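Today's session is about reading a structure prediction critically. Students often jump straight to the picture, but the first step is always the sequence itself: look for stretches that repeat, for charged clusters, for runs of hydrophobic residues. Only then move on to the predicted structure, which in these notes is written as discrete structure tokens rather than atom positions. Here is the chain we will use throughout the hour.
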Amino acid sequence: MRSFRSYMLVTALFLSFVVLPAQSAPDRPSEEAMLQADHAFVTAVAKSDKQSLAKLLDADFTWTDSDGKTEKKSEVLANLPKPGIASEAEAKSKHYLYGEIGDVQADAGRVHVLRVWVKRPAGWKAIVYQEVTSLENAPTVTPGAGKDCENPCKSVSYDPKNETEKQVVSAYEHLETAAMAHNSAVFSTLVADEFVAASSNSNKVYDKRGRMEDFDHSKMAGVAPTPLSSARMFDFGDAVLMTSFHRPDRGKPLHVARIWVKRNGNWMETLSYQTSIQSPSSAR
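Below is the predicted structure for this chain, in token form.
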């Protein structure tokens, strides 16, 4: 009996060592560290603590406000902008982690804020802060890519620098082609389940299901493919941050931030924050 109990004890200990590594626990420290950095960011901005904020910003950091004005790290630290959400205590928020890149999304009324974080040797750094203020009412027009959608459906004004960027550009073109055709079936294969789209040209924030339902009813509702003028990509292996500048066929130009993740060999868009640029001098 004693030998049987000893055998069962040894077996249980062995199984515990087999099972534990398969759990997602190793990602929790990174997630917690990113959220701690995000909290420190929000606190530093609220207190206008430039010294603390400087330690949290990536060299490529940009701040885009609801008017579409985009400033670099040095400009932000020289004259700290006021955040679109004065206090995030009552704002709804969610976050996602994709290896060495993650994002935090905060919503308060019509104001929507995106903060993208990247993991550097010195810790988590903010690389994108972007605001979108939704319209009060449903849009009457939808700025887009014109009837033929040459750009971005068939080609874009961007030369991929490596194979990863080439694949992301291809996925982006296919995504916009599906959107232009209101093809919800194809669209669903190109966006992640956590997909969200926020635009200055729309009165609501879309999730995956909501976007597909609009396509099924032949609606764009303010969010449509728009010609891409320039873009920049940040490659983190199976995740890519894409920031871009767009000139639609009508209305104001757009500053857009997207995150792409590779799942089961396919690139999928997780978010699209689109901010109208109100002043020509703010376009970059």
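Discussion point for the tutorial: The radius of gyration is 21 Å.
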